[in-house]
Design brief:
The chain is α+β, with helices and mostly antiparallel strands and 326 residues long. The chain is built from ten helices and ten strands.
């Protein structure tokens, strides 16, 4: 997509100068991104070129004031997350066109679209390390907003716009997931900081392995198993939306080595995969039905997640804990 907010070269030069990262040489829009405007920035300092990512925040982060401290924590514990560059005054945020902006390191690597077993392993290790690193973090983080009320509200917004069978599927799954979220065993599941959006277009790899995880704007306090469900839905499914059992087990095994999944988490994982798929189907669906105020539709294809919801609704995934042991 094209960036939502366009940059002016003179204003941008003044903005970059406040970071002390050198002289602006070039900038260009990043190809990926739906919710925020992202630009690559190239500067020259001390005779060397450096590249950064400038993010213009079009929508507030789920994590609110915890966003930058969370990224700082990830960098501190050695996770492959871009460091936020502070201004010369020590402020991570600046204002541009009335919106908040952030400057961060540009991480090396490329997105992958047909992940290998080793790349799935790297993803599982990252999630395990993230959940462990933030497990004892005492910084307040807002709860994940896509709860039962959010699901019901967005299903109502989509009401009347879907064919009969799709509407039936949607309403049936909303009832099932809202019931899940009210259960006592669900509410006792391990919680903590989740990335919430660990899709293939938010992870970078090179020949050495996983080099970067991007876009923590969906990060919030939520069920840890939800993060695995989000990742499995995107990384371990085929074009029809069906889970690949081997890739799914690879993801779970690698994660389990670092942070042991509880029996209840494994029991409820299929339901959480439905929950995660339903949440992203609804978010994309509502944006496609109700475009932005300027009439532009900025979303990925909702049918991709409708297919995943259909597969989860039709097929039950059973995971025996013994399968996760080496």
């Amino acid at each position: 997509m094209n960036a939502i907010t366009q940059l002016d070269i003179l204003d941008l030069e003044d903005t970059i100068a406040r970071y002390g990262v050198g002289e602006l040489v070039r900038y260009w829009p990043a190809a990926n991104g739906i919710e925020n405007s992202n630009y690559f920035i190239r500067t020259v300092a001390d005779g060397r070129e450096h590249e950064y990512v400038l993010t213009i925040v079009e929508q507030p982060s789920n994590s609110g004031g915890a966003y930058v401290p969370l990224l700082d924590l990830c960098v501190e514990v050695g996770l492959p997350v871009a460091r936020v560059i502070k201004t010369l005054d020590g402020d991570p945020y600046q204002s541009y066109a009335g919106k908040s902006i952030l400057l961060s390191q540009r991480l090396p690597g490329q997105h992958v679209y047909n992940p290998t077993q080793s790349q799935i392993c790297a993803l599982g290790r990252f999630l395990g390390r993230l959940h462990i690193a933030t497990g004892s973090w005492d910084h307040p983080v807002p709860p994940y907003p896509r709860d039962a009320s959010w699901l019901e509200h967005h299903a109502a917004l989509a009401s009347g716009y879907l064919p009969f069978q799709s509407a039936n599927l949607l309403n049936s799954c909303v009832r099932e997931v809202t019931s899940l979220l009210k259960r006592n065993d669900t509410q006792s599941l391990p919680r903590g900081v989740i990335h919430g959006d660990l899709f293939r277009d938010n992870v970078l790899f090179n020949s050495r392995g996983l080099t970067g995880v991007l876009d923590f704007h969906h990060a919030a306090e939520g069920y840890l198993i939800y993060d695995l469900a989000v990742a499995a839905n995107d990384w371990c499914t085929d074009a029809s939306g069906q889970l690949d059992p081997e890739l799914t087990l690879t993801l779970l095994r690698t994660y389990h080595r670092l942070r042991r999944l509880t029996p209840t988490e494994l029991q409820l994982l299929p339901a959480f995969m439905l929950y995660a798929a339903l949440a992203f189907w609804l978010s994309r669906l509502v944006v496609s039905i109700h475009p932005t105020s300027d009439g532009e539709v900025r979303c990925n294809n909702p049918e991709e997640f409708q297919r995943i919801v259909e597969q989860h609704a039709a097929h039950f995934l059973y995971i025996d804990e013994r399968l996760l042991l080496d």
